[in-house]
Amino acid sequence: MQTPTTPSRRRGRPPKVARTNPDTRDALIRCGVEVLTEQGFVSTGIDGVLKRVGVPKGSFYHYFDSKEAFGHAVLSRYADYFARKLDRWLLSSELPPLERLRRFTQDAQEGMARHHYRRGCLVGNLGQEVTLLPAGFDERLEAILQDWQRRVADCLRLAQAHGELAADTDCDTLAAFFWIGWEGAVQRARLKCEPTPLELFSQEFFARLPR
Asked: Burial, 6: exposed, middle or buried (Cβ in 10 Å; 0-12, 13-18, 19+)?
């Protein structure tokens, strides 16, 4: 009588099973920041992100329920990164307040040039697509911009206290104007692939401040 045999294990690669790995999730988000700052959310395909990171699709859906959830995670990462970038300049006690803001614009110009104007502001990119984005993105984008405005307004108020700005300057309105103009300059610099729009906006903004 023959005894039953255990089926032999098929040789080859092990099955692609999604495993919890913080490094994989981080790599997907970092790649998402790079891609979305270049081409926005709508035109970004998940397959392209997976190919760049080198992970199977199962890994993606292990960490993110959908492309929308992935977009929110990428947006949060970018917002945190940019807030730290702003603080690095705007809270620098070694520089006068207005010079801190000026240095931020110079640093941003250098960053765009470094990437040959392929990358813009992720928040600005998504703002251009807002009518095509899932519900909720508009509120997130506005909240991030409001946070950036608050940081600039605080810097302007400090400049006011130091006598760099007129005592009756409306720092909140001026900060809102700064971001409206700066985001437009970033988009135009990408369009023209040159720094002139950034330089022009920065020059005129600082030249026209109420003293």
From this structure: exposed
